[in-house]
Here is the input.
Amino acid sequence: MNLYQLGDLKKNLPEMRPGDTVRVYEKVPEEKRKKSQVFEGILISRKHGKGINATFTVRAILEGVGIEKTYPLHSPLIEKIEIIKKGKTRRAKLYYLREKSERKIRKKLRSKMVEKTKNLKEETKSENKREVEEK
Here is the structure.
């Protein structure tokens, strides 16, 4: 990798793997300003390593139509990437999900919620226990 490319690489990227459900915040140019837009779906592939040419593909089903978007990993138009669920798969490329229905996809991917939401659930349970004990 060349030195001039190192400055363009993003540092704060999450550890993403195919099968994860991700939320991508992207800047969409409008007439006078840039609008932030969110695209949420399943990560079906990562290509070209971690360098400046790295890309990832996200697939979502919106209104019954499958939509895939391929993003450059280090694009300046991507504000941030959030991982919502961790999926456990045995393949690196999940192109076979294109033919599956949404219900079969959920069944196929053994997903686990990210720790943030687990911690919130545990906190609410402990708060509920405290309220019961106080009464």
Summary: Residues 76 and 134 are 52 Å apart (CA to CA). The first helix runs from residue 3 to 6. The helical segments are 3-6, 102-108, 115-134. Residues 3-134 form a domain with the SH3 type barrels. fold (CATH 2.30.30).
